[in-house]
Every structure is written in structure tokens, then in C-alpha cells.
Amino acid sequence: MTAVVGQGAAGSPAAPARTPQPRSRAGWAGRVNGLTLGVVTLWLSLIVLLPLAALTVASFGDGWSGFWAAVTAPVALAALWTTVLVSAVVAVVNVVVGTLIAWVLVRDEFPGKRFVDALIDLPFALPTIVASIVLLSLYGPNSPIGVELNATRWGLMVALAFVTLPFVVRSVQPVLIEVDRDVEQAAASLGAGNWTTFRRVVLPTLAPAIISGGGLAFARAIGEYGSVVLIGGNIPRETQVASQYIQQQIEIDRPVNAAAVSVALLVISFVTLLVLRWIAARGQEREERAA
Amino acid sequence: MKPSRRVVLSAVAASLALAMTGCAGGGSSDVAGGTTSAGAGGVTLNLYAYAVPKVGFDQIIPAFNATEAGSGVQFQQSYGASGDQSRKVEAGAEADVVNFSVTPDITRLVKAGLVAEDWASGEHKGIPFGSVVTIVVRKGNPKGIKDWDDLLKPGVEVVTPNPFSSGSAKWNLLAPYATYSKGGTNQQAGLDYIDKLVTDHIKVQPKSGREASETFLQGTGDVLLSYENEALFLEGQGEDVEHVTPPSTFKIENPVAVLKGSENLAKAQAFVDYLYTPEAQKLWAEAGFRPVDATVAAEFADKFPEPTKLWTIDDVGGWPAVDESLFAKDTGTIAVIYDKATA
Q1: What tens digit of pLDDT does each residue of B130-140 get?
Q2: Considering the domain B130-251+305-342, what is its CATH architecture?
Q3: How many CB pairs below 8 A link A and B?
Q4: Structural domains of chain A, ranges and CATH numbers in brackets
Q5: CATH class of B42-128+253-299
Q6: Could you give the C-alpha distances from B155 to B159, B187, B193, B197, in angstroms and in order?
Q7: Which residues does chain A have within 8 Å of residue B169's beta carbon, measured at their own beta carbons?
Q8: Radius of gyration (Cα) for chain B, nearest Å?
């Protein structure tokens, strides 16, 4: 019984087609599967679902009207809007530049390539507050290069672009390495130009990786706090992002407002990831049908 | 069943082992920390304070350690927005001594049963030091700010922290309120000023006095409202700012109290008592805080010029009344103005 439930829930499409195994072996494998499934469920519940449920309950501490008032307060809406807008721009920039970087790293040979490759992960490995200090010393007041982005939305974008750089690069890179270059050569021999080859042959293969990388970058940017805390300026209605608003509400003893905006943020992230997964899955289906 | 039970058991054993090594690690480092630094006394006091007096405690604590009573006493210090710190202690953060910007933040702990009712019964009513509200401007005072009226000039942006988390913010708003309302006798005039100031001239809401200073130093705003001690500190750091104390301003009184449930009550009380000694009062004065000891105050009279009119919290009705009528969440008049302007 556990075996069936385990495999079904794991979503392995091959499971129902598999021929029945001798009972003893299937039973053993099944129990382990049941155990792993149990551990996964327990872990997800403890680490992810339970806190999220607690947060949601907290956000309705003053009832539905309290929740709605907290989320639609003008400054809260402004913070959510700033967050989504800036994150979306950063995600799009990442999709273009990240794909380009991945392309260069896979297809081109140049001195120092390995160094550049290692550099990509640096923003990821760095504590985000360090990123904020780095950016503040470059773009803050008395900027050594004369560019002051401190307390502007440009400052936010630079900070978020900095910390989300690796997402698209690292998801596109492995796919690009695996791409069969014969197909491109075939396309070229059939008279397709570089752009057409890229658009009709390469891009469809890369699309799921680009979309998932972009989605992760967006989700990360939406929740980012450390890297924007110094450079962002935290000006309500201008550069205050949702995470800063949440922090502020906690500090002024309005935990319900903080929880409500957190839930709004959560819903935005979740829906974004879900939609992007759906788009990627549909793209892949089309690919498979075409092939 | 057997294999899975074995798996479960080993998993449990592994996690237990992990937990134990974790504890052991933490424990050993605690002990190491204790022995190297505690010396003879081995007492650690947790100090929860508002954001700006760190510069004072940095001088006071070593001096206290040099006294007989303070020998070997270690300090765990936590600084932050006054209201936020007070709520943390109320919520169970372990503290032995608290120092907040405003008295209501101590009153909260009295109500919670954490601080004795008679904490303010001493000679100085629980206030070892204070300051006055002052106006900090950019070097050379480019906007020509001299008095409260000047803050309402078009285009002047004022930085002052959020009164829902910061004690400094309350003092900063009380100063013009007392000035324009003539000590609360013409409340409407005071509130009109606050309304104009908050609605048209305040853009950012830093959480504490310290964060407001940082925001100002990073280039936001033309004016910073702050403690005189913070202004003196910033100038002492060589920042490009100067301060103008308006002729009519407000006396800031920063209370200190001992938590009655403290494990080291005697040491905590000794520390608080030490703050009132002439020696400590001098250190506070040197760090820019106005001392409460009359002799020391006379000695530093040049450093702390007396404003023409210095309003006190008693002039406007005392803290319980002021906090209730002006700053109470959702009902206080200033709280409502601030919420309306910033929501």
C-alpha cells in the first residue's frame, strides 16, 4: 500500500507502467520509499509549511478587514509596487545579460575565462550586507566615480542585479553545454542566418532554463533585504521595498501589518514561480511534440 | 519493518549526536569566554539601551570595571530604538539594566512586573543624564536654519526618527510642540506646527536616533533633529555638520532602571548607582550628555549653554499624560497626524 502511495505521490510517470516485481523486493523498496516520502513531508512541513501557516494566521490577527487594510495601506502598496517593479526589471535584465554571459562562457575561448567563471558566483557567496557596503562606497555620497545612486530606484536595481547575477547564468550554462551543435550546423547549412538559428533552434532549447533562472532571480529580488538596506535609502513611497516595510512595521510594534504584507509577498513569489513553471512545462511539451 | 526501524533508529541516533555536539560546542565556548574575560567576579550584566548612549557607556563601563564594586563585571550590551528595545525586554529578552530614551519605555516594564514600582524614587528620579533637543544642519548652514520656524520653509527636508519606535523622535516632536503650544496651553497651535512639519517636511522614517544620524550623514535631508549629545558626537567625529540649538527647546531626560528579577541584582544596582557618582557624571559630560550632578554640571557649563527657554516634560503634563494624549497608537493626537502623513 505504502509503495503505491509513495510512487504515485512522487509523480514518477513510469511507475504505473512498470511490471510487477517479485513481492519481497517491491515491499522492501516500497517501505524505503514510504520512509523517504515521510521524511520529505515531515521536513517540508516543519521547515516550510508550518511557519507559513503560522504567518498566515498571524496576518489575520485583526480579521479579514485588518488584513486588507494592512495590505492596501498606501505606503504598503507603494512598497509592494516598488518591489515588484524593480524586481521585474532586474529579472528581465538578468535574462538578457545572464544568457549572454552564459553563452560567452560556454562558446568562447579567452584568457582568464576560468577567473570570470568563478567571479559569477561571488555575489552569491558574499553576505548581502557586504554587497550593500560595496555599492555604497562606490555609488554613495562622495562617490569616487561621481555617480550617486544612493537612495534612488537605480540604486535598488544595481544592488538587486548584483545579488541575482548568478541565477540565469548558472541555469543556462549547463543546458548550453549539452546542446547538440550539429543541429545548429544543420540549420546553417539549410540557409538560416545566425539570428534565425539562435531564435528558432537554440532559444527554444534554452527557454526553460532561462525562464526558471529568471523566475528565481525575480523571487530572490522580491525578498531581498541585506543588499538594499544601505543603498536603498528606505524612503517610503519611493525606494522602500517590501522587506524594509515589514521590518519597519515590526519595529513600530505592528506585527499584524508586517505579517499581512509578508503574506502578500509570499503570494506574489509563489504565483510567479507557478506561472513560470507552467510556461516552461508548456514550452517543453511543444518541443517534445515537435520532436 | 526491521530495516526501516533500523533506519529510524540510526537517524535518531545521528540527530542526537549532532544535537549533543552542538551543545558541547556551545557550552565549551561559553566556558572559554567566561574564564578568559570574567576574572574574579564572573558576573555578566545584560544592558539593554537606546541607540545613542553607546559612546557614553564605552567610557563608563571600563571606568566602572576599575572600581571595587565593578571589578570583573562583564557587560553584554544591546543598543537599538528605545521603544523596540523596551518591547524586546517586555517579551522576555534577558536584561539586568535598561536605559531608555523616554520614561514610558520603562513604565511599560513596570506594568509588565519587570521593574520595581519605585524605580524613580532616588535623588535624581532614575535619570542619570540627559540632553536637549537640537537642530543639526550641513556645514555652513546653507539653508540658514536658526529656529523652529525655519524648518517649515519650502523645500526644507527634515530627518527625524519614527516616534512609534524611537524615543528620540518623541523628544524631537515635543520640543516644537511645547514651544508653539506654550507648554501645552494652546494645544492646537502646537499640533498645527507638528502637522505641517510631519506632512510636508518629513520623508524618511528611520527607526532610531542613531539610524536617523546615519541617514542624514549619507546625504538625505537638510536638517536632522537630534539629541545635543548626538550632535556633539557627530561634530567630534569630524562629520561635515554643525548644530544650532533653538532659543526655545526641550529638556531630554534619559532614565535607567534595574530589573527586579535580575540574577545579579546587587551588581546591577551597583552599576546604576555608579552612574550618579561625580566620576561617572564627568564621563557622561565628556561624552556630550548633560550631567545631573549639580557640581559637575557647573563645571561643564561652558560646554552646555542654557537655552533661553527650556521646556520640561512636567511643563506639558508629565509622561503618563503626554504619552496617552499625544503618542498613544491610533488615539494620540501626534500619533494620528504621523500615521496620516506616513500611511
Answers
A1: 999 999 999 99
A2: 3-Layer(aba) Sandwich (3.40)
A3: 66
A4: 2-59 (no CATH), 63-290 (1.10.3720.10)
A5: alpha beta
A6: 13, 26, 16, 12
A7: none
A8: 23
